[in-house]
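Support request, please re-run this one:
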Amino acid sequence: MPPHPLLAQAFQLSAAGRNPEAILIVNQLVAQGEPEAMHILAEMRWRGGMVAQDPRAGRALFERASEAGHGPARIIATNLLANGVAGSRDWPAALARLKAEAKFDPRRKDMLALLGKMALTPDGDPLRIPEAQPLSASPEVLSFPRLFTATECAWLRRLADPGFGPSTVYNAQRRLVQDPIRTSDGSTLHWQIEDPVVHALNRRLAVASGTKADQGEAMQILRYKPGQRYHRHLDFVGTPENQRIKTALVYLNEDYEGGETLFVQTGLKVKGHAGDAIVFRNATPDRRSDPMSEHEGLPVTRGVKYLASRWIRENRWQP
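Re-run finished. Output below.
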């Protein structure tokens, strides 16, 4: 459907720097139940900027827009219901919505089929995972062979592909900014696009790491072309509260050379097969940075390396 004529006027006002007038129009249209206006205001509330950031209010607006027939909002509302970000989590209800969406959306149909191949509890947790194989005691590094299937790895790469850009990292304000020590390209599977498949995989990583899914930052998919690397670094962050205690990495392909994960202090090198994962600890029991966890991604020499990365905090991180 074409946008409401007043939305075009709101866009023109915003482009002219008259944001308060533009927001007033959007709010008036929301009060009238206009779906696209609800979606626009939902995005504004979710991200902040022109209006105060309020993810819970944003999610409620996505749900209202979904009920009013807005297609993209419907997808976001289902994803958020599945992952529980900025509100309640209801896995069975999310799957019921997904089944309805699969009737007319081929991508959601593929998603439903992939979920059907996973061994999950009624709440979306894995029934089992591969047995951990210790690689190192200091730093503590555990390996999980074939934690993800080849199809699941392909799903993550496909979802990430449109979003690749210079790799980013969260700053103290929980905003993504360009990472100064990583030359790879990155694509963040942020909360809105963390679909039920991605969420089920994140819950698998939570079990492997002995944490809860809501402690993880949004999954990032990294792409390393020849010559690209991640210089030596610690994943520990300087803020005193809600520290990054663990990191989970999943190797999404194996048809490349170089690109090993090197733990600098011990010389341990890891290059997993597609679907293999490692989990390592960044902090000591007294919440200090563990210098033994210093690591780097060595330069790729041939082919392209794809890696899923998830930083895990000591408490709930997601809004």
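The chain has two domains: 5-114, 133-313. The two ends are 32 Å apart (CA to CA).
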